[in-house]
Amino acid sequence: MVKSAGAALPAARLDAAAGSLPPLSRPAARVGLLGGTFDPVHLGHLAVARAALDQLKLDHLFFIPAAQAPLRREMPAASAADRLDLLQRAVNEAADPRLGVLDLETRAGGVNYTVDTVRKLRAAWPHAEFFWLFGADQFAQLDRWREPAELARLVEFAVLDRPGSPPAAPPSALAASIRWQRLVGPPHPARAADIRRRRQTGELLDLWLPRAVAAAIEEKQLYR
After folding, report:
1. What value, to the nearest 5°, has the Cα angle with vertex 83 and ends 78 and 84?
2. Domains of the chain and CATH, by start
3. Which among 191, 198, 190 is positioned nearest to 222, based on CA atoms?
4. Residue 186: its pLDDT value, please?
5. Which residues, in sequence order, are CB contacts of 59 under 8 Å at separation 6+?
6. According to the model, what pLDDT value does residue 151 have?
7. Which of 50, 119, 169, 191 lies 20 to 30 Å (CA to CA) from residue 162?
């Protein structure tokens, strides 16, 4: 998916029946995938994306918002449609043609598993090289994910160490069978839970959110 800088384009949609996606910049593109609830998307997410684009030499990086994360009991505070819209506004503001948003999980609704999402992308882009981005805390519990060995066959993992947390390490049962590398990113203090709390107490969010996202949250009266 290639965008012109600043263009307000809709999120790329995967037609599950046709198996189609907008073409990549080249068949063997290096594609980063960053999933999450993004409730809301914040500057920390964008910092991770920029670090990954640079360090992994990615041609594309796609944000994939979840309708409902499998390992989270609580539902997101904002609707899938609103979270998708905020992500698209953040990507448009970033004006980097390598960034995009995929809505296949929010359109499907309910719980979607990463391995199934990646299978669909692999079918659409059979020659691409995929990198799944996440934090060291999620990496440590990879053995709780659906079909982790199959997921490890489909992607290489890029793991971001969080300040104050133990260094990244895979579950021992999977250590010999996965490909992974450490992602070094500038630490950013933004956390979605803190942003929601600050919103409820009326604090300014300018230091934590892209301007377009902050404006949309106010416009939609989200996280009150």
Report:
1. 150
2. 30-188 (3.40.50.620)
3. 198
4. 73
5. 24, 25, 26, 29, 30, 31, 98
6. 97
7. 119
> What's residue 146's pLDDT?
96
| Amino acid, res. 216 | A
> Residues near 35 by Cβ (< 8 Å), separated by ≥ 6?
63, 64, 65, 66, 105, 114, 117, 132, 134
Q: Count the Cβ atoms, other than its own, within 10 Å of residue 169.
A: 12
Provide the pLDDT for residue 189. 82
Residues of the chain where predicted confidence (pLDDT) is lower than 70: 1-20, 163-164
Query: For position 20, what pLDDT does the model report?
Result: 53
> Do the bridges between strand 156-160 and strand 60-65 make them parallel or antiparallel, or are there none, so unpaired?
unpaired
Burial 190-218, CB ≥16 within 10 A → b, else e:
bebeebbebbeeeeebeebbbebbbebbe
60/32 Cα distance (integer angstroms):
6
Cβ atoms of 102 and 14 within 8 Å: the answer is: yes
The contacts of residue 126 (CB under 8 Å, 6+ apart) are: none
